[in-house]
Amino acid sequence: GQSLEQPSEVTAVEGAIVQINCTYQTSGFYGLSWYQQHDGGAPTFLSYNALDGLEETGRFSSFLSRSDSYGYLLLQELQMKDSASYFCAVKNYGQNFVFGPGTRLSVLP
Amino acid sequence: EAGVVQSPRYKIIEKKQPVAFWCNPISGHNTLYWYLQNLGQGPELLIRYENEEAVDDSQLPKDRFSAERLKGVDSTLKIQPAELGDSAVYLCASSLAGGGGNEQFFGPGTRLTVL
After folding, report:
1. Beta strands B88-95 and B31-37: pairing type?
2. B43 neighbourhood in chain A, CB within 8 Å
3. What is the Cα–Cα distance from B57 to B2, expressed in whole angstroms?
4. Rounded CA gap, B27 and A70, in Å?
5. Is B27 a residue whose pLDDT tops 60?
6. In the 3-class helix/strand/coil scheme, how is A3-41 assigned residue by residue?
7. Residues A41-60 pLDDT 10s
8. Is the dihedral of CA A80, B44, A94, B77 positive or negative?
9. Quick check: A102 and B41 CB within 8 A?
10. How far is B19 from chain A (nearest CA, A)?
11. Closest CA to A43 of A12, A86, A103, A98
12. pLDDT, tens digit (0-9, with 9 covering 90-100), for A15-36
């Protein structure tokens, strides 16, 4: 089977750092993506990791450990506009993306 | 450059009625996906096209759902007849073809309510 696990909710204050974890078990693995989705909006691409390690893009960083079937999204200098749902998604051997259940991030003033 | 276009944005129908959703992907994107997203959950793949070929429709409930992408550009997803449990957001996404398509671009979705 295929399954991804993420925390359902995370709360943090403006300016803080938050880490959203994702563990996965899928039929084959090519890479791990992260998407952001505001309420009522479309998912938007944040990052894609195919190799182990940390990749940084501005305030957001994404990490992957293939041996541990684990990744995380790190958001720094949190802003109110970062309040959204965040989804990890695995690209499997079928070239399809399997999405996790999502983590709802609330940023408090 | 225009993004992924979907219509309608909202649709309310009674159960047992048919409904259709339309998607126009980003120009040059050969791969097109249809997803279903229930409230508070992640998108679930229904079907993936490479050009006009449905390369993965294993998750499409074929007794009531159908899809087409006749010219390898825009696509239509149909439900006939709709059931109460079909109420959800239907998302269309596109990407560059095959292994190069690691970034998916999503449309705004069609929110379907079945009464």
Report:
1. antiparallel
2. 43, 87, 99
3. 27
4. 34
5. yes
6. EEECCCEEEEECCCCEEEEEEEECCCCCEEEEEEECCCC
7. 999 999 999 999 999 999 99
8. negative
9. yes
10. 21
11. A86
12. 999 999 999 998 789 999 999 9
